[in-house]
Amino acid sequence: MDNETQQSNKSEEIVNGKIEEEIIIEEIDMKAKIVTFDIENMANLLWSWSIYGGSNGWRAIDVEHEWHILCFAYKWLGKKAEVVSIWDQKGYKPMIKRLKGGATQFSVPDERALMQKMWDILDEADIVVGWNSVRFDTKKVQAKMVAMGFKPPSPFKEVDVMAKKKQICASNSNKLDDTGVEWDLGRKLPHSGWSLWKGCAEGDVKSQKKMERYNIQDVVLTEKTYLRLRPWMKTHPNLNYYSRDIKACSVCGQEKTLVKRGWAPSGQRRRQIYHCAPERGGCGKYCSGELLPQDPNSKIIITK
Ligand SMILES: [Zn+2]
Predict the structure, then answer these.
(1) Spacing, Cα 165 to ligand 1 middle (Å)
(2) How many Cα atoms occupy the beta-carbon half-sphere of 195 within 13 Å?
(3) Distance from the alpha carbon of residue 31 to the mean position of ligand 1, in angstroms
(4) Could you tell me the distance, in angstroms and rounded to a whole number, from the CA of residue 290 to the centre of ligand 1?
(5) Are residues 152 and 281 in the same domain?
(6) What is the pLDDT of residues 45-59, one digit of tens each?
(7) Which of 4, 95, 191, 266 is the most buried (most CB within 10 A)?
(8) What pLDDT shows up at residue 13?
(9) What is the whole-number distance in angstroms between the Cα of residue 119 and the centre of ligand 1?
């Protein structure tokens, strides 16, 4: 962090004989930091009496090794996507080791370093974007962090694009791949299914590289869906609250794109409507200003 973006000055002054500590913060760059992320996790290793679902349904007897996170991809808005993988961590040993004579040895990789990197990103982010992330990705990483005794990262808002799509669109499918096709934004990378996950756990470098590309494509596609849907979202965090510029588009943060588009009545008062005008490079979002008194020149005769 450089001097221009954050400077903290502590000065002490004596008020009524008591030393009051005053913290003065100058020149903070308050623009919201938006990150899109996606995790890929390994399956549980289970014991079972049967491989078929009987009348009571299939069930595991016991968990031998719990699921772990293989890798996660993240993308700061408009920046290059990055991936962090368990196999790149210090001291990593593959979960599955084939021994001579046909035996197999299992061990669970240490996820602490991986989760620390994830924690750093969540801690830095103001807004965290994902596909089904509120129900899945965020909770999966939180499950690990809580179990490992991490303290919470600084607060962040979540935008789950899949949940938003369900609110806004009645589409045939809410899967990321289908949405990429529906909105003509691209597709998820194809993969061979379970053999790819197993290959990663066996330490197969080709499988691991493929998993990383698959993971990266997921965040790239998720960010595209986020940007497509963002102007339609009614409950996106207002970016003005992260900025000193108090008159920017509430979802994309641009200023010069805004044009006034009349008023929205609210009870006996009204709000100015602003349009983040596409013809000026805007995202198309209609934003509304603060609640103002009615125009004194307009005479409202009938009030009920
Ligand atoms: Zn905008």
Answers:
(1) 18
(2) 4
(3) 14
(4) 17
(5) no
(6) 999 888 877 666 778
(7) 95
(8) 42
(9) 29
What does the pLDDT read at residue 30? 61
What is the reported pTM? 0.85
Give residue 139 CA to ligand 1 midpoint distance, Å. Answer: 30
Does residue 24 sit in the same domain as residue 75? no
CA of 218 from ligand 1 middle (Å) equals 24
Domain count, the chain: 3
Q: In the prediction, which pLDDT does 35 show?
A: 97
Q: 285: CA distance to ligand 1 center in Å?
A: 5
Greatest Cα pair distance in the chain: 93
Site of tokens 């040895």:
105
User: In the structure encoding, which two tokens stand for residue 273, read together?
Assistant: 């409507």
Distance from the CA of 114 to the center of ligand 1, in angstroms? 35
C-alpha 86/C-alpha 69 separation (Å) is 7
pLDDT in tens, 233-242: 999 999 988 8
Coil, strand or helix at 295 = coil
Which domain, by its residues, includes 11? 1-29
Q: Which pLDDT score is estimated for 137?
A: 97
